[in-house]
Amino acid sequence: MSLQKIALSAVSLAAIAFIGLTSAQAATATPALTKAQVEQIVHDYIMNNPKVLMDSVAGYQQKMQADREAQAGEELKKNMSTIVKDVNSPEAGNAKGDVTVVEFFDYNCHFCKGAFPAVQGLIDKDKKVRVVFKEFPILGPSSQTAAQWALAANKQGKYFAFHAAMMNNKEQINDDLLQKVAKSVGMDIDKAKVDINSPEVATEIAKNRTLAEQLDINGTPAFIVGDQINRGAIPEDALEQEISEIRATKK
After folding, report:
1. Residue 76: is its pLDDT beyond 80?
2. Cα(85)–Cα(96) distance, integer angstroms
3. Is 214 helix (H, G, I), strand (E, B) or coil?
4. Rounded CA gap, 140 and 207, in Å?
5. Across the strands, what pairs with 134?
């Protein structure tokens, strides 16, 4: 929490103390305390009872987090069709799968690379699952360029091969690397160079950024399974458990 918010909490405590004091004075007809006296009383109370202020800060943070989660849940419901059915979003697995998993990720994200084996394993083992990929480049210009190349690969039917190669890549991302990966998966490089700057690619990335903001996703990776937003990497067994729970509700 910022110092400004902590200060506001302290001011709130001061206001409560002031109201309590003035009410008591009114009942006993004692002289009103000056502003300086009230401030000193509140200061002394906080200094002698610092846990009160910390509890107030913690409570404020918990309420704000709960409010954000509730708002994100509403946005998820409202935008579910766009999230899981956008024809411009790359996908893998069973196109007619009974459960859809959505991942927001960045090719420069170490945790995304660490989560990739779980995604790959899920696709390989569960023949009824569908995975939708949301390019969400937030870690610098090379992330943006990599996302553009990935969406260009999608236009050529080469998306998952390119995606897997990038997730397994340990080299620094630059134009030479991206072209090397594109060639390795059989992409038409000249076509890709045109497509990476196409309005469709720019629009897809912009839509993903907007969705992420609405869903309070500000880091990568993030997984959506049903009505659950998982912020951060998730183990394969945990993904499988969430998918099983969704299937159980459909029976």
Report:
1. no
2. 11
3. helix
4. 18
5. 104
Confidence of residue 21 (pLDDT cuts 50, 70, 90): very low
Q: How confident is the model at residue 246 (pLDDT cuts 50, 70, 90)?
A: very high
Contact 224, 82 (CB under 8 A): no
CA dist 115 and 109 (Å) reads 10
Helices (H), the chain: 3-28, 35-48, 50-85, 110-125, 141-155, 159-167, 175-184, 189-195, 199-214, 236-250
Amino acid in the structure at residue 93: G
93 φ/ψ angles, rounded to the nearest 5 degrees:
85, -150
> Distance (Å, rounded) from C-alpha 184 to C-alpha 61?
48
Residue count of the chain, please give it: 251
Whether the Cβ atoms of residue 169 and residue 150 lie closer than 8 Å to each other:
no
pLDDT band at 72, cuts 50/70/90?
low
Cα–Cα distance for residue pair 25/143, rounded to 1 Å: 64
Torsion of CA 206, 207, 213, 218, to 10 degrees: -60
Residue of higher predicted confidence among 64 and 196:
196
Q: Using CB atoms within 10 A of its CB, is residue 44 exposed (0-12), middle (13-18) or buried (19+)?
A: exposed
Q: What is the DSSP letter of 197?
A: T
Sheet holding 91-93, edge to edge: 91-93, 129-135, 99-105, 222-225, 228-231
Half-sphere exposure of 152 (CA within 13 A, CB side): 25
